[in-house]
Design a protein that fits this description.
- Residues 28-52, 67-91, 105-129 form the Zinc finger LSD1-type domain.
- It is found in: Nucleus.
- By secondary structure, the chain is mainly beta.
- It has strands at residues 23-27, 34-38, 43-45, 52-54, 62-66, 73-77, 82-84, 91-93, 100-104, 111-115, 120-122, 128-131, 141-142.
- It folds into two domains: 23-97, no CATH class; 98-142, no CATH class.
- It is built from no helices and 13 strands.
């Protein structure tokens, strides 16, 4: 007597994005890869490391910075004063655009960014300290560290 075969299970319906195709992005909390997700999702599962990352509430403005310890791109909610890197645990200052200023290093001419109101800024390339503000030529020093 022949044995009846069970039917194959029906495959799940393929994912269909919203009609307007709106997508957003965030950084995976596990492996730091950039994840794309449909607008309205509450969490995203990473296809690389399977970590589930919560999606911030709609309307939340996000900002980005590069970690000073390991140079990983970090995303955070705009308005935060500091951001801890999940890779190297460095606590990074999160400054708004109106809280920072720029000056060229007095020695190597590298463009430097510093917190607005600071009196001087030390170049990470050549260790030259450039005074900012009124007079820059008399207070510059070179530190050999």
């Amino acid at each position: 007597m022949p044995v009846p075969l069970a039917p194959y299970p029906t495959p799940p319906a393929p994912y269909t994005p919203p009609a307007n195709g709106a997508q957003s992005q965030l950084v995976c909390s596990g492996c730091r890869n950039l994840l794309l997700y449909p607008v309205g999702a509450t969490s995203v599962c990473c296809a690389v490391c399977n970590a589930v990352t919560a999606v911030p509430p709609p309307g939340t403005e996000m900002a980005q910075l590069v970690c000073g310890g390991c140079h990983t791109l970090l995303m955070y909610i705009r308005g935060a004063t500091s951001v801890q890197c999940s890779c190297c645990h460095t606590v990074n200052l999160a400054l708004e655009a109106n809280q920072v200023a720029h000056v060229n290093c007095g020695n190597c001419r590298m463009l430097l960014m510093y917190q607005y109101g600071a009196r001087s800024v030390k170049c990470a390339v050549c260790n030259f300290v450039t005074a900012v503000g009124a007079s820059t030529s008399t207070t510059e020093q070179k530190f050999n560290t």
